Amino acid sequence: MFSDINNLTIELAKDIVENKSTIRATARKFNMAKSTVHYYLKYRLKNLDTELYCLVQEILKYNFDEKHIRGGLATKQKYLIEKDVENML
User: Fold this and answer.
1) Are 40 and 9 within 8 A, CB to CB?
2) What is the residue-level pLDDT of the chain in tens, covering all 89 positions?
3) Looking at residue 77, what is its pLDDT?
4) Which of 16, 23, 51 has its CA nearest to residue 37?
5) Which residue from 32, 29, 9 is spatially nearest to 21, judged by alpha carbons?
6) Do 58 and 16 contact (CB within 8 A), yes or no?
7) Which of 6, 18, 19, 23 has minimal Cβ neighbours within 10 Å of its Cβ?
8) Which residues contact 5 (CB under 8 A, 6 or more apart)?
9) For residue 20, what is the DSSP state?
10) CA–CA distance from 24 to each of 12, 31, 81, 84 (Å)?
11) In Å, what is the CA distance from 3 to each residue of 10, 21, 41, 79, 89?
12) Alpha-carbon distance values, 30 to 8, 16, 26, 44, 51 (Å)
């Protein structure tokens, strides 16, 4: 079982690096909890593959730094759609 967890951790990391995806998107893809994915990538991966760990941490840091911008754009889009619906009525 321990080997399976290590393999899963590597697969999660490879998916994030290849797709530059977020923890949330990766968790959804692998049907796992976000906290589990985060734990595997933050703590287990460090002991398994240091180079891959560094790549993943760079991507996660970028995603974290951009999070507030994505949220603002989503809110803007939401209100633009609501405004269009009101104009149609």
Assistant:
1) yes
2) 447 999 999 999 999 999 999 999 999 999 999 999 999 999 999 999 999 999 999 999 998 887 666 777 778 788 778 877 777 76
3) 81
4) 23
5) 29
6) no
7) 18
8) 40, 44
9) T
10) 12, 10, 25, 30
11) 11, 24, 15, 48, 59
12) 9, 12, 6, 17, 22
Q: Which residue has the tokens 């287990």?
A: 44
Q: What is the pTM of this model?
A: 0.73
Structure tokens at 5: 């967890």
Tokens of 50: 């240091």
Torsion sign over Cα 18, 58, 11, 69: negative
The Cα–Cα gap between 15 and 24 comes to 12
